[in-house]
Here is the input.
Amino acid sequence: MPKLKTHKATSKRYRVTKRGKIEKRAAGQNHFNARENGNTGRNKKSDVIVSATLNRVMQIALPNN
Here is the structure.
């Protein structure tokens, strides 16, 4: 049976934590951030844990993590 290969685009966008959860960057950080208030800007800077449904898909795309 051949090796399972990691989907490289996925591995660059998502990160697996030590407990197996998958993190990604919060959406909406590219531009128009000066108009956001402090709380919104701060919340965008933190990573987001993906949903359980997306977590199952990511386990297939990231087999060796």
Summary: The beta strands are 14-16, 22-25, 47-49. Residues 9 and 21 are 18 Å apart (CA to CA). The chain has one domain: 8-61. Helices lie at 8-13, 38-45, 52-61.
